[in-house]
Amino acid sequence: MFFLIPEVFQMKKHLRSPRKNLDRLRLCLFKKQMRNIYENVPYYREIFQRLNIVPEDFKHIDDIQKLPIVSKKDINGNLNIFLNENIELWDCYKSHTSGSTGQPFLTYFDKKSWIRKKYLSKLRARMACGMRPGERVAVFESELSGQLESRNRKHPLQQFFLKIKYFSIFDDVAAAIEHLIAFRPQNVYGPQSFLFHLARGIKKTGRTLPFLKRVYTSAEYRESSVTQFIKDVLKVEVYDIYGSTEFKEVAWECERHQGYHINEDEVLCEILDGGKPAPIGEVGDIVLTDLKNTAMPLIRYRIHDRGKLLQAPCRCGRTFSIMLPVGGRASEYILLPDGERISPYRFTTAIEKFKGLLQYQLIQESETDLFVNVIIDSNVGNETCRNIEETIINITRGQMRVIVRKTERILPEENGKFKVVKNMLLKTHSLVQ
């Protein structure tokens, strides 16, 4: 990790580089990635040959439009042709999707890009928001407490820069509050829906967390009413982060909250309307290109989110372009009979690990009935269905009847988008009570 120390200082300088210098850097990274995919990635080599183009034809960032858009559907089942054939996979890091599209997905990263994306880019953004060396950070993850014990012992930044401790979002809210009081972090990081319920628990019990200064939300589409509730109850500043498992952190809010600063030295962000660039300020489909990862470079990858680029630079003075996610993937909450709302993230991260699960969809048809449509690999028996049923019953604390149904196809919505969670109930409950 020490070989990246010079890059840490350079990455920090990028935040306030003159725009012409930043554009020059982006173009250099872009050209290098075009050379990499042409020489090392079978899928793109074939595309270049079919289109009769070479890396030297990419002279400007806009030339990215010469290449086709890809999605999970294109890559699943064809993973090998999207991998760098001259990199050993055993020497790479791999990351599983968050599951918000209902299609499990695996991404490989070379070591250098993994460390940059997983740690250094995040650290740069958090320090821009006020985090300081030596502070404590509580991270709420979608894993069971027992699975987090080894991570708490081995985290590379734990002794190097920050005191980081992982906690499970599946723990009882009361237990989570006690964990925070014992650890006394200045920073908390986790899914918005979980932190919302944590704030509700704080409010109901009358407890306070005076040591807490900042909350960072991620992994879910931001709801402004929830953000305000967390801010008011916990008496903290709340920063939202936009990212994905395939790219890690893509963009983040600063103290001005005017939009999300795109990590432009890591990723190229396009906003498309019908396949063409959407005008600045208008909503379109978010399409991302990785400028750093050489192991499995995702080029013009449709993330199935919507957003818009913003024209005015942020008043904070940082020169990275800003964007605004305006609608996450088409997912809905599950409403329990006792009134609790459970984020789709809780379900997707819990059931994706089961063997042979190809795609799934949760449908709440009544207050007590939850149907789970699943497409299972033909080589897998019924154990996966039983595991899914038991897991969801545990998440809903036994309040719902869970029916898992095998199917050959899960249809998209009329607008062509897939909903991993559908709530058929009329939602008249107020979110913040």
Overview of this protein structure:
With 433 residues, the protein is of the alpha/beta class. It has eleven helices and 20 strands. The chain folds into two domains: 1-329, Rossmann fold (3-Layer(aba) Sandwich); 334-423, GMP Synthetase, Chain A, domain 3, CATH 3.30.300.30. 30% of the residues lie in helices and 25% in strands. The strands form four sheets. Strands 4-3-5-6-7-8-9-14-13-12-10-11 form a twelve-stranded mixed sheet, with helices on both faces. Strands 19-18-17-20 form a four-stranded mixed sheet, covered by helices on one side. Strands 1-2 form a two-stranded antiparallel sheet.
Features:
12-stranded mixed sheet; GMP Synthetase, Chain A, domain 3; Rossmann fold; disordered C terminus; alpha/beta; 4-stranded mixed sheet
Total strand segments? 20
CATH architecture of the largest domain: 3-Layer(aba) Sandwich
How would you name the CATH homologous superfamily of the largest domain?
Answer: ANL, N-terminal domain
The side-by-side strand order for the widest beta sheet comes to 4-3-5-6-7-8-9-14-13-12-10-11
Q: What's the overall average pLDDT, rounded?
A: 87
Strand content: 15-25%
Helix content: 25-40%
Count the domains.
Answer: 2
Q: In a few lines, what is going on in this structure?
A:
The chain is α/β, with parallel strands linked by helices.
Secondary-structure topology with pairs:
Elements: H1 5-14, H2 19-40, H3 42-51, H4 72-75, E1 93-96, E2 106-109, H5 111-128, E3 136-141, H6 145-154, E4 163-168, H7 173-183, E5 187-191, H8 192-205, E6 214-218, H9 224-234, E7 237-244, E8 248-253, E9 260-262, E10 267-273, E11 276-277, E12 284-290, E13 301-310, E14 322-327, E15 334-335, E16 341-342, H10 344-351, E17 357-364, E18 369-376, H11 383-395, E19 401-406, E20 421-423
Helix pairs in contact: 2-3, 7-8, 8-9, 10-11
